[in-house]
Design brief:
single chain; alpha+beta; five-stranded mixed beta sheet; two-stranded antiparallel ribbon; 12 helices
């Protein structure tokens, strides 16, 4: 049974519209960067298929040339959408030039259909190949993996489809080529549309995981992530026999700030303190909110002396800082307990936190606004296995 090409093109237009609506429904009010362009790409693609349908319905019509231009615009929008999703901005010419080339080469407007179709098909194939190249580079997409591969397969198919259009321009009487174009275009729409929907879903999962790992006020890691990442860092330090230290910081008399100025002022103080601490840390140091006005800083590759030096620097910076609250400024101080793990078999992260808490308690008892350091004894290495 032969496929009716007219019905096929109508079905392609309907599929483009349904895919655009499906993505709008999937993203709802959480439209991510580039997804609006992707929806516009689907709509432009639908317009292109409609114009290609009208090409055969209206004698000597510019619809075919305009259809080529619409498909080129759709590919340019898709390239722009994916480059934004990957945070890899491309030159504006990469989006505009192909469509202009197709428009300029669409000489069928003057009655010569074959040269226009050749130019349009060749440029469209190059655009689809550019998208495949973009998706084949090392991934920085928020949503990657299988959905990206699905979109890449779809545009790999598009390269073949536009090459087919070039062949169809050379043999316009071959209706089989039109049938293959319609079927291939349907597979392209399904692959790419489904891939982008899945990319959006995976990105939302990753965003939810990221938010679950962060403190809602300060944006730094929360206590759960401190325990998780701390355990991994401690295991690495023990395995490679490297030093590691942990700071526990507590704001002195923080309740007075909340009582005197309200909780919003207290939040402003916490944000100011976090910014001050961050400014003193290296790449690879881990800052987390342990609870309330308590913070922890995990310091890989740092012994007791290095941790004490950093803790004193943080203490002095906090003491010197003036935080604007309303019409005035507030000063706070911080007490810091330092737990330094010895090189070798390390205690658990819970033991290290408990030791830093003891050091912090000592700093509070000794007058606040100071640093106390305690050394964690190495845990006992497991006995060697007995043979036999």
């Amino acid at each position: 049974m032969r496929l009716d090409v007219t019905t096929g093109y109508l079905f392609l237009c309907l599929t483009d519209g349904l895919m655009a609506l499906s993505l709008l429904y999937a993203v709802h009010k959480r439209l991510r960067q580039g997804e609006g362009l992707w929806i516009a790409s689907l709509l432009a693609q639908g317009v292109g298929h409609l114009l290609l349908l009208l090409r055969g319905a209206i004698p000597w019509s510019p619809a075919g040339a305009l259809g080529d231009v619409a498909l080129s615009v759709a590919l340019s929008l898709a390239l722009a959408a994916l480059s934004r999703m990957m945070s890899r901005p491309l030159p504006r010419a990469a989006f505009i030039a192909p469509s202009l080339a197709v428009a300029a080469g669409a000489s069928r407007l003057l009655g010569a259909s074959t040269p226009g179709a050749l130019v349009g098909g060749a440029v469209n194939a190059a655009q689809a190949a550019a998208i495949v190249w973009l998706l084949s580079r090392p991934q920085s997409l928020e949503a990657g993996g299988r959905p990206v591969r699905l979109v890449r397969v779809g545009y790999g198919l598009a390269v073949a489809l536009f090459a087919l259009r070039v062949a169809g321009a050379r043999h316009p009487s071959e209706s089989t080529l039109d049938e293959a174009w319609v079927l291939g275009s349907f597979a392209l729409i399904v692959c790419t549309g489904l891939g982008v929907v899945l990319m959006h879903r995976e990105a939302m999962w990753r965003e939810a995981e990221r938010l679950a790992a962060l403190d809602g006020l300060t944006g730094i890691f929360n206590r759960r992530m401190l325990m998780d990442l701390g355990s991994r860092a401690l295991a690495r330090a023990s395995r490679h026999r490297r030093p590691l230290s942990l700071l526990m910081l507590d704001l002195d008399h923080f309740k007075r700030v909340n009582d005197a100025h309200g909780h919003q002022a207290g939040d402003a103080v916490l944000l100011g303190i976090v910014a001050t601490i961050r400014a003193q840390l290296r790449h690879g140091d881990l800052l987390a909110r342990y609870g309330g006005e308590e913070f922890c800083v995990l310091l890989p590759e740092t012994d007791a002396d290095g941790a004490r030096e950093l803790a004193e620097r943080i203490r002095l910076r906090v003491e010197a800082q003036e935080i604007k609250i309303g019409d005035g400024y507030e000063r706070v101080t911080v007490s810091i307990g330092v737990a330094a793990a010895s090189v070798g078999p390390a205690p658990s992260v819970n033991d290290l936190i408990a030791l830093s808490d003891r050091a912090l308690y000592s700093a509070k008892c000794e007058g606040r606004n100071q640093v106390v350091v305690l050394h964690a004894p190495p845990s006992e290495a497991p006995p060697p296995l007995q043979e036999g």
